[in-house]
Amino acid sequence: MLAALGLMQIKDLRRFYSFLTTSEMLLARKMRSPDSNTERYPPGIAILREATGRLTLFINGQRVNVRRGQVQLALLACLLDNLGRAVPHKRLFTAIGRKSHNWSTRHLLSQYMSMLRQLLLVNKAPIVIATVHDVGYALCEIAENPRHTSNDGVSRLGKTVRHWRIAAGLTQTAVAKQSGVNRSYLSHLESGRRNPTLATLHRLAKILNVAPGYFV
User: Which domains does the chain have, with CATH numbers?
Assistant: First the structure.
């Protein structure tokens, strides 16, 4: 029987179950039940542990052969267990069986990650591996409908700047001249079309005689 390790939902269940024995199908279905904690994983990918202890990878219902597979799959399983979170180098070193944390080990880990990235890309997996500089690696889902950055915060900030400017009895021209910013820039800032730098906010706060924190 397969012991599930990081089992995820799979889109084409019929194709997936065709790889499994009756007992393995029951286990897979059990892991997909509402009580299962696998719902946090993205659909389309699974890593299973066979009775022999070997790991097997399925992507979109297809069994995937992995060169130097066991080490790479151990790394992928570690990343899947921490989906959306950065996994430190030290923990990943352990996953590849390395105790010494030197340049050679980091280079080897980097090679394994490159191979995994290529593997996921070729098989159109719904996830990607991201490098977290000087920290480690993270596994992230590919967003079907990416969120758009809202400018509501910029708009509110601009309205607050305008409020304190009017309260100080100053025109845009006067504030622009005293703070050293362009008047049209200030106008765009107040209307929410520009996002000011921290230095600009400090200059405006000094002119309007308020703390920078009043703008946010």
Answer: 3-141 (1.10.10.10), 152-215 (1.10.260.40)
User: Per DSSP, what are the bridge partners of residue 131?
Assistant: 137
Write down the pTM of the prediction: 0.50
Report residue 200 as tokens.
């600009």
Q: Which of 130, 124, 132 has the alpha carbon at shortest distance from 43?
A: 124
pLDDT tens, 140-197?
Answer: 888 776 555 555 556 788 888 988 989 889 999 999 999 898 999 999 888 888 888 8
Return d(Cα 86, Cα 109) in angstroms, integer.
15
Neighbouring CB atoms inside 10 A of 179's CB total 18
| Nearest partner of 80 among 124, 137, 34, judged by Cα | 137
